[in-house]
Amino acid sequence: xxxxxxxxxxxxxxxxxxxxxxxxxxxxxxxxxxxxxxxxxxxxxxxxxxxxxxxxxxxxxxxxxxxxxxxxxxxxxxxxxxxxxxxxxxxxxxxxxxxxxxxxxxxxxxxxxxxxxxxxxxxxxxxxxxxxxxxxxxxxxxxxxxxxxxxxxxxxxxxxxxxxxxxxxxxxxxxxxxxxxxxxxxxxxxxxxxxxxxxxxxxxxxxxxxxxxxxxxxxxxxxxxxxxxxxxxxxxxxxxxxxxxxxxxxxxxxxxxxxxxxxxxxxxxxxxxxxxxxxxxxxxxxxxxxxxxxxxxxxxxxxxxxxxxxxxxxxxxxxxxxxxxxxxxxxxxxxxxxxxxxxxxxxxxxxxxxxxxxxxxxxxxxxxxxxxxxxxxxxxxxxxxxxxxxxxxxxxxxxxxxxxxxxxxxxxxxxxxxxxxxxxxxxxxxxxxxxxxxxxxxxxxxxxxxxxxxxxxxxxxxxxxxxxxxxxxxxxxxxxxxxxxxxxxxxxxxxxxxxxxxxxxxxxxxxxxxxxxxxxxxxxxxxxxxxxxxxxxxxxxxxxxxxxxxxxxxxxxxxxxxxxxxxxxxxxxxxxxxxxxxxxxxxxxxxxxxxxxxxxxxxxxxxxxxxxx
Length: 613
Prior knowledge:
Blueprint: H1 3-13, H2 52-58, H3 60-67, H4 83-86, H5 117-120, H6 123-126, H7 135-138, H8 200-203, E1 206-209, E2 212-215, E3 245-246, E4 250-254, H9 278-281, H10 355-358, H11 411-415, H12 430-434, H13 452-455, H14 506-510, E5 511-513, E6 520-522, E7 544-545, E8 548-549, H15 583-586, H16 607-611
Antiparallel strand pairs: 1-2, 3-4, 5-6, 7-8
């Protein structure tokens, strides 16, 4: 019989004597529903005292506070104690288990010290069901649990979610108004000058919102003075008030040109205009509605509206085409001057040339512009001049729009020359053939040669015999369309190309690398015609006759298959299934060996020699 069973038998035998002889006393009202010996183990462990775990199994709200290390029971005074030390049972229905002295209770032990106004308030003002969020705790009469530390858990949000929920950033427990912690410097608008003394309500109005008193602190416009103040200029003047007025200290303090951004008007100040006093152009006045309105509509280029025209209208009224605001005697580069009104309209590259590059003296001095060489040197130094005649003008090949580096001498005109361009030459830039850095002048157009070797390196010189390469004429094998394609009659050498040899590039047989740096040597004469001179002999000496292996006895150049080999002439003619077998089924690479180690001269032909028992 186990200990647990024995105890239940004991309780059964003595139950008739009444529960009063087992229970030490009645439970309090809070636990009265657990009366009866069938409920003992709800709080008691058999053979053991009441444990904290049993208490916290029911009082989960206390366990939650302990887990978060919050509340009185997590303080140094209560931490580590058994629940029964303060809250014992079986002392009758009316017994006070809490032993709570509200008047002398040290609220600091809860983790929420009471300060200033909070210390003066009656406990019931805070500990009331309306301020408890947990629906189960809200049902408990007289409970001190369930309150949060946040201000808004007890107090109404006067700002109605328009400001931070952390009230302590601006307020403290001593006094709600004014907000002692608030510093206007931390706001988006710092108070300076006259604004420091303005009553808050002037900018932050009181109103009713959602039926409650409310004061506006957010969503206010303050980027411009006119967001709060009336504009005495009736929006006639652009820009911020601070450009002309000291808005922080004395609005009547006029700052004039040093601060006002005249670029906000339709007349931007430049040069000498920047140092001109406002009232040298504008009439003085005291009426804010009309001040600075007397020059409206005057354009920046209407100089004669204010200044005397020294040219008497001879060059029009747009003075800015030639002059600037720095000084009337200081001329610009005249890029905006309309040269088309002259006898020589500017085109292309000439439009970007400084005036003084052509007009060395006065701008009114006449210039000869009948030919390019009247101003420019003949870069080609008369090379295109016909005998006893004058060289053609530059415009015959060049244009002002495309520039001197581009030439209008194209393929059609080149086709009429002594050297028509074909193939790859059509895509070759002019400088590749005509620019000679070591010549004077560098550009050469006459007697530069027509043969390939006049421009290109002859890599075959002294390698190919004169018979196949007469007069070093590259065109015997190559053409200008694609240099890599070779058109050579190999039959003329006495060694015709057949089969796979016809697909091989010339370099594969006639060029040999001599090092790792890309150097090579060529050989076109006295090449060995035997297969093994170019190809590896994978059969070693197995098929040698008189010290030489003749590959052609079995193979051809078509695809290297051994079509010439007749197995019937060997010591083991093939018949039956043997005819269908691939060579490598019998002639295999030995383990650890290579292809050259394959044995093609098998000496044993019994079935058991290949197929086993």
